[in-house]
Amino acid sequence: MSTSRLRGFEPADSIPNPSENRRKQRIDLGNGSEVIYIPRFVPRDQAWDWFQYLDKEIPWTRPTIHVFGKSCLQPRDTCYVASEGLTELKYSGYQPHAYSWDDYPVLKDILKAVHEALPGSKFNSLLLNRYKSGSDYVAWHSDDEKLYGPTPEIASVSFGCEREFLLRKKPAKTPQAARGAEKSAGKRPKGSPSDQHGFVLRHGSLLVMRGYTQRDWVHSIPKRVKANSVRINLTFRLVPT
Ligand SMILES: O=C(O)CCC(=O)C(=O)O
Ligand SMILES: [Fe+2]
């Protein structure tokens, strides 16, 4: 697919500066949630160099996780890097070992590039994922673990095979809000925000989730039979101390 946005999903806001407009998209998800997408964040050759390094040097594992009372192999490889002294990460009954930034200088270079692109950000942990083929995936979830606080900023850098990243609004919680959602289902008024978005995350792209995105939305990387090469994704996060 040539375009970074998926057909049938919402177009991005236009940004006044025309050169920025080509590069950067800002999607207002409503109610204090937003996504930024920069398709050409890392130049192509640099991105391939980083891909090769990560594929080869990172101590990837495929852990057993526990979801809905069942054990299963996580459907992708993973690794975790964090600064010393942070609250430990635990998800799906699995507590990854925290590797040190000092052991992977390239991760520090990528982190530096991310910090430069996002003024004011100060990430101190990183979850890495490797999708070996289109049958590897990440199920619908939100990164709403307590250790990240109520409004985490999550910066996601992708390398290798292009895969779809989907965002879907969580169902309304109060009966009143649920009735409203039911009434408007299928006939969204013009100009009101959509409750689903999709991006094809290209090699070297940066996607940022902000505000209440983890509280109000879920995201996923679905299986895709046609995706037949490796994709590596890095999500930088801040664990407040
Ligand atoms: O691979 C991706 O783009 C997303 C990964 C993700 O959602 C996660 O690690 O929490
Ligand atoms: Fe996630």
UniProtKB/TrEMBL annotation:
One of its GO terms (molecular function) is cytosine C-5 DNA demethylase activity. Substrate binds at residues 68-70, 144. It comes from the Eukaryota. Residues 122-240 form the Fe2OG dioxygenase domain. It holds the Pfam family 2OG-FeII_Oxy_2. Residues 1-26, 171-197 are annotated as: Disordered. GO terms for biological process: DNA alkylation repair. Signal peptide: none annotated. 2-oxoglutarate binds at residues 129, 131, 141, 219, 231, 235, 237. Belongs to the alkB family. This is DNA oxidative demethylase ALKBH2.
